[in-house]
Amino acid sequence: MLTGQFSSPIFFLMESLDEIRELTTLSMLLRIFVSIVLGAILGIERGLKNRPAGLRTYILVCMGSCIIMLTNQYVYAAYKTGDPVRMAAQVVSGIGFLGAGSIIVTKQNQIRGLTTAAGLWASSAVGLAIGIGLYEVAIVGAFAILIILRVLNHWDAIIRHRTKTMNIYIELKNRNCIGEFIHYLKLHGLYAENVQNEKAGISSDAAFIFTLKSSCNATHDDMIAILEKSNAINYFEEL
Fold this sequence. Notes:
The protein is an alpha+beta fold.
């Protein structure tokens, strides 16, 4: 008797989920609404950080993926033909074109927008999950994405600041300063690898990209401070 009392709410919940997973007008409207809400939650987080893809983009990606999945389900159910997940597969591959548009390579070969592109791809996955009726997966997945974008961003910054390897874009005062600069690095326990000569920079025609490493116990901030004190440098930026 006790078992029945405790289990009845669970059975009621399961029956309710089964009902809204059926392809009815009400369930389709509910899925579109949920996709808009979850897309907005992810889009607001990106918009607050002034990223290329913000509120509207995330809503459209999530809702569009949901509609495509619903359409595929309807065609399969109504006409008894086709593959029920074929259009979903096209979304997974096609979203890459949209993501690629948000990736920017600066003049210093610095890549920006990878997290935004990955977020758009994950947002489309949330939309597909809603479209097929996997509400639990979609909701948990959306909030997991939100946590990754918000919380792990701080951890990622901590990890980057503890690394002893940095990619640096640098502009020296002139090309005669190259030997002086290399000697300066060695004196402070630093050395450069994978040096690439770049076109003339903003303040000098001696522009380079290289990997800076520490052979001592210098921290990330120590390495930045060492570069700032060099008399041979006009400008530098961590990539």
